[in-house]
Every structure is written in structure tokens, then in C-alpha cells.
Design a protein that fits this description.
Layout (H helix, E strand, L loop, with lengths): L2 H10 L1 E3 L2 E2 L1 E2 H7 L7 H16 L4 E6 L4 E6 L2 H8 L6 H16 L3 E3 H8 L5 H9 L3 E4 L4 E4 L2 H5 L2 H14 L1
Length: 172
């Protein structure tokens, strides 16, 4: 097996219900990179593989929520599918966006009270339950807190989202 074959396997595997791909440390260990230049070898291999699979409509992405690298199918149709995975339920998208904001603001844990204030609704429990069922969040009812699962990082390019939000805020 060559390095590309091993890397393709690691980046395309599903490790559990909400996680796929591999971390940088896993990849370095499996490919047996050693020494002070292991990060450089890793980066070069990721760039080379990315260039190699790009004509196939594939792209290597990084999920900052799970610190995993993975392979994504990048076409206009897949963007449309992932644009609204809530099947015409904009309230779920709005609630998930509020959860994302609260979690990022509070180092990964959002408080349900803060989500209700941001969403300007008294009861978001039904939305949160549905988001939990769909695998986007975990809920701790005792502490009234929520936490994002890595799933949202695979379906949403968080870097692009933050860039667009930043650009929109700077225009205002």
C-alpha cells in the first residue's frame, strides 16, 4: 500500500455515528512519519492528495469540532442538499444557529436560557429535542446545557460560514 491509499482509507472511514475521517495525529502515526518534519510531510501529503482527487469532485476538508480531516463530495447538487437538511423547517435551522453561537461563545457548551434569549422564544425544548434526535446536539437537562456533536462540522463548512458572517458584519 502506498501513502495515498492509506490516507484515502483514513479520510473516508466512518468512526462512529457522528464522526468520520481521522485526526492529524492518527494519520501521522499510521503513515509512520517521524521526526521534526512530520507536520510538513503531513501537510504536503494532504495538499498532493487534494490536488489528485479534485477532478473527481472530491475535496479534503477539516472539521474543527472534531479535529478530523475527511473527504467530502463537492458538487453543486451536494451543496443544495446540505443547504437545508431540515426539510422546510426553518425554526430548526434558526435554533441550531443559536445553539452554534451560544456554544462558540461559551467554549463548547451552550446554556438553554441563552438559546431561548437569542432565539426570542420561551420554549425551544421541542426544537432542541428534534436536533438531538437528528444527531446535531447533546442535551444535559439537569444542567440545562447543550453541546454540539461533530456532525454539524461535516455538513456545514464552518470556515466559510464565519467568513461570510464576518464580511456581512463589516459591511454594516
Amino acid at each position: 500500500m502506498n501513502e495515498f491509499t492509506i490516507l484515502l482509507y483514513l479520510l473516508s472511514r466512518k468512526t462512529n455515528k457522528y464522526e468520520m475521517g481521522a485526526s492529524k495525529e492518527e494519520i501521522i502515526k499510521k503513515l509512520n512519519f517521524q521526526g521534526k518534519n512530520e507536520s510538513i510531510y503531513f501537510q504536503n501529503l494532504i495538499v498532493q492528495l487534494s490536488n489528485y482527487i479534485e477532478p473527481l469532485g472530491l475535496q479534503i476538508r477539516f472539521n474543527p469540532l472534531s479535529s478530523h480531516w475527511y473527504i467530502a463530495f463537492e458538487m453543486a447538487t451536494s451543496d443544495l442538499i446540505y443547504a437545508n437538511p431540515f426539510e422546510g423547517k426553518p425554526r430548526l435551522a434558526a435554533t441550531l444557529f443559536c445553539v452554534l453561537i451560544c456554544c462558540l461563545k461559551n467554549i463548547g457548551i451552550g446554556k438553554i436560557n441563552d438559546i431561548e434569549k437569542l432565539r426570542k422564544k420561551k420554549a425551544v425544548h421541542d426544537d432542541l429535542k428534534e436536533l438531538r434526535i437528528r444527531g446535531y446536539i447533546e442535551i444535559d437537562n439537569n444542567l440545562r446545557q447543550v453541546r454540539l456533536t461533530p456532525l454539524i462540522g461535516y455538513q456545514l463548512d464552518l470556515n466559510k460560514l464565519f467568513i461570510k458572517l464576518t464580511l456581512k458584519l463589516t459591511k454594516q
